[in-house]
């Protein structure tokens, strides 16, 4: 059954989430087949913006990396029926969308995409004017409705250029419009967009009075630094003639000259003259229109000469990275006021000045290696340059200072790979982490040098490295560099100081030091107050391990147990008096007999080294384990040979025995197993055994009955029919004796055998009931070596 058939078959009852799960499961099953078929699916439903639908909007969905000639089916999970068959599908409603494709006989499903519906915001604003003229700023205030809005204002004021739009919430705008004596209407539009990408637009008209034309002519008009200038390239005061070029009907003119002269107001203006001294000035030109509006226009005036920027003196400079360098400028520069100076370093730094200082300070962050300067028909390698340019409305001038050789400042950055505290014979790697550094002399670069020093200068050896030498000189040129990394094995305990010297022929010497403590290797040792004892033995420890020079010792105790074959015992040990397995001198209580091995490891954690384990053993003994092996009764004609099972675990000497036989032929014995103990009279007798070793005495006892031997009776018939009467073959007189019983059938085959204490027989051969008949028995008693034979009949 195809997968498409399954989905359609269950469509009435499956939810969208179930369908998505089935699609994902199917993708996993066919993935291997897809790879074998050589098909590479992008598995992406692409779209522009966000996967949302705005009211009345649409969203175009596209299948990325769609194979050529693939058959496409689009689905909306809400209906489970195809909704499109083209590579692109335009969505107009929210929902869960997915697509299946069939290519080269392989079906593949693109992961589903959830498209959500988002409401449009509501755009709106208010505004407040400060007058009716376009020259007065207008304040706009947002009144839109919606969350997480972004704003785009268009003020409908094309002459405002870049200022015609704004993205702030509540902007202010001063309209420019076109010059005139009437009014002008502007259409202001606000577009707001919410987080879902849905937007709304609102527009209002604003009508303002036009402002008059402020066009003014004058000598040497030009634009400098994006500003309008009237220019006189002279070192003398200059008379400027200004011409009114306004095309609107005006009622008056006011000029603020900007040089300290009184303002000038006239009703009519064709032209007007004014003398400016050397310098740069700003003139404010106000024109009053016939509609009551006015406009102020700024014009800049420059009187002066072309700039000059010679360096004094012209010398090469050397500098060090990270350190400011001072560059002297010609103190006699006579460039006019209003000149703009730019200092451009070839490392990318640019500074601008209105007044050039006598001294420029600059810090180079990188050396000048691989930098090339071409100036004055010369080329400098491994050098920076400084170009100072001066510009004013009368011209431009520049000069170059080169070469500037920048060497790396020697930065000694010592790090050690490992510990600052170590043990002897530990290899430590020290690293010069200052990075690559170079000195530059006359354009030639050389690596900075470094030298290692260790004090005291004995008690260590180097491994695959060298320390270099400063030859006892402060001149770096006489140094011999060591290796960048220094591998040291300290062979003697003590405190050391390691110093890294890094030197530059141009930038001096830097150093970095580390203190290092070298400890003797940790050794573990301890003494015990005893190495043996009995149950509940307290053992105290005296720790004799060595201590570090510059570290704190840590201890770890471990205890192993061996019952030495006495399986009746198990480990029973505990710490006491507040001590633990990490105490320097713990105390132990041993309550379980056996052999304990105490192990101590001494470690110096900051040094990263540990000792081998030091071990001692202690034997914990116990009182004897005694078990009496006596019958419950004996006959008056029997002698008693008492036996006991003794376990004298962990002892080095045999135990002592004391038997007590009250009323017997002997009353005491010190033998492990006395023989020929007789009792004359019937009755109950208690036998006591005390066993003593170095840990104490164990006493056990047992009471036995002395009875007269019963008369032997062997029944010749019994009825094993389970009626509760005579169901077993019971022989009296040997019930407690050790016997051997054999029963034979008429063919001489043994059908019942018993060896040991006598037990009644139920007339079966295994689990099988024997038939009615006559059987033959042989009974032999072990005690008296008596033999009994006869016939036995089984009836039911």
UniProtKB/TrEMBL annotation:
Which residues are the signal sequence here? 1-32
- Which CDD domains does the record match to this protein? PKD (cd00146)
InterPro entries membership? Ig-like_fold, PKD/Chitinase_dom, PKD_dom, PKD_dom_sf, T9SS_type_B
Q: Which SMART domains match?
A: PKD (SM00089)
* Pfam families attached to this UniProt entry: CHU_C, PKD_4
This protein's UniProt keywords: Signal
What residue ranges carry the coiled-coil annotation?
Answer: none
PKD domain mapped to chain residues: 121-208
Q: What is the protein named?
A: PKD domain-containing protein
- Which species is listed as the source? Mucilaginibacter panaciglaebae
């Amino acid at each position: 059954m195809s997968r498409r058939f399954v989905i359609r078959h269950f469509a009435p009852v499956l939810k969208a989430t179930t369908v998505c799960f089935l699609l994902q499961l199917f993708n996993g099953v066919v993935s291997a087949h897809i790879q074998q078929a050589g098909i590479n699916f992008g598995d992406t439903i692409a779209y522009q913006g966000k996967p949302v639908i705005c009211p009345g909007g649409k969203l175009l969905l596209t299948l990325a990396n769609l194979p050529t000639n693939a058959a496409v089916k689009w689905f909306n999970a809400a209906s489970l029926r195809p909704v499109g068959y083209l590579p692109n599908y335009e969505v107009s409603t929210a929902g869960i969308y997915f697509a299946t494709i069939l290519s080269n006989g392989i079906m593949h499903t693109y992961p589903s995409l959830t498209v959500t519906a988002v409401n449009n915001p509501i755009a709106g604003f208010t505004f407040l004017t400060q007058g009716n003229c376009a020259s007065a700023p207008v304040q706009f205030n947002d009144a839109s409705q919606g969350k997480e809005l972004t704003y785009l204002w268009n003020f409908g004021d094309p002459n405002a250029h870049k200022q015609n739009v704004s993205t702030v919430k509540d902007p202010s705008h001063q309209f420019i419009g076109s010059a005139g004596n009437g009014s002008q209407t502007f259409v202001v539009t606000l577009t707001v967009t919410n987080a879902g990408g849905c937007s709304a637009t609102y527009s209002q008209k604003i009508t303002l009075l036009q402002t008059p034309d402020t066009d003014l002519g004058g000598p040497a008009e030009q634009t400098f630094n994006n500003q309008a200038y009237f220019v006189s390239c002279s070192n003398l005061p200059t008379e400027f003639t200004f011409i009114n070029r306004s095309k609107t009907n005006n009622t008056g003119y006011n000029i603020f000259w900007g040089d300290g002269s009184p303002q000038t107001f006239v009703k009519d203006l064709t032209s007007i003259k004014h003398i400016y001294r050397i310098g740069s000035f700003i003139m404010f030109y106000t024109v009053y229109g016939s509609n009551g509006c006015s406009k102020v226009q700024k014009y800049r005036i420059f009187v002066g000469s072309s700039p000059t920027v010679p360096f004094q003196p012209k010398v090469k400079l050397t500098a060090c990275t990270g350190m400011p360098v001072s560059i002297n400028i010609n103190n006699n520069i006579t460039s006019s006021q209003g000149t703009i100076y730019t200092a451009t370093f070839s490392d990318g730094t640019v500074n601008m000045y209105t007044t050039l200082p006598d001294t420029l300070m600059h810090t180079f962050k990188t050396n000048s290696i691989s930098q090339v300067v071409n100036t004055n028909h010369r080329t400098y390698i491994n050098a920076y340059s400084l170009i100072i340019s001066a510009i004013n409305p009368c011209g431009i001038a520049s000069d170059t200072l080169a070469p500037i050789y920048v060497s790396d400042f020697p930065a000694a950055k010592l790090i050690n790979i490992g510990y600052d505290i170590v043990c002897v014979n530990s290899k430590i790697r020290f690293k010069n982490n200052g990075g690559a550094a170079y000195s530059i002399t006359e354009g030639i670069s050389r690596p900075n040098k470094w030298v290692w020093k260790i004090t005291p200068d004995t008690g260590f050896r180097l491994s695959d490295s060298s320390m270099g030498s400063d030859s006892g000189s402060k001149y770096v040129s006489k140094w011999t560099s060591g290796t960048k990394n220094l591998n040291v094995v300290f062979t003697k305990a003590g405190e050391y100081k390691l110093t890294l010297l890094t030197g530059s022929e141009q930038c001096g010497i830097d150093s970095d030091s580390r203190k290092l403590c070298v400890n003797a290797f940790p050794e573990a040792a301890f003494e015990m107050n005893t190495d043996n004892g009995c149950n509940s033995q307290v053992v105290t420890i005296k720790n004799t391990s060595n201590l570090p020079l510059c570290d704190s010792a840590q201890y770890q105790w471990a205890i192993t147990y061996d019952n030495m074959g006495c399986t009746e015992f198990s480990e029973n040990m505990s710490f006491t008096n507040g001590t633990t397995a990490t105490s320097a001198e713990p105390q132990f209580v041993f309550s379980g007999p056996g052999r304990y091995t105490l192990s101590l490891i001494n470690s110096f954690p900051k040094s990263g080294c540990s000792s081998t384990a030091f071990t001692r053993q202690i034997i914990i003994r116990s009182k004897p384990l005694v078990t009496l092996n006596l019958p419950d009764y004996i006959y008056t004609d029997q002698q008693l040979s008492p036996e006991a099972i003794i376990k004298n675990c962990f002892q080095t000497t045999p135990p002592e025995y004391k038997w007590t036989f009250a009323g017997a032929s002997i009353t005491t014995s010190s033998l492990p197993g006395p023989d020929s103990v007789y009792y004359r009279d019937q009755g109950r007798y208690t036998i006591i055994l005390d066993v003593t070793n170095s840990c104490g005495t164990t006493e056990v006892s047992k009471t036995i009955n002395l009875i007269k031997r019963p008369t032997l009776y062997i029944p010749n018939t019994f009825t094993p029919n389970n009626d509760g009467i005579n169901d077993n073959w019971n022989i009296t007189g040997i019930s407690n004796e050790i016997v051997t019983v054999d029963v034979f059938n008429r063919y001489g085959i043994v059908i019942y055998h018993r060896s040991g204490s006598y037990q009644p027989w139920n007339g079966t051969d295994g689990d099988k009931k024997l038939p009615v008949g006559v059987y033959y028995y042989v009974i032999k008693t072990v005690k008296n070596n008596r033999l009994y034979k006869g016939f036995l009949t089984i009836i039911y």
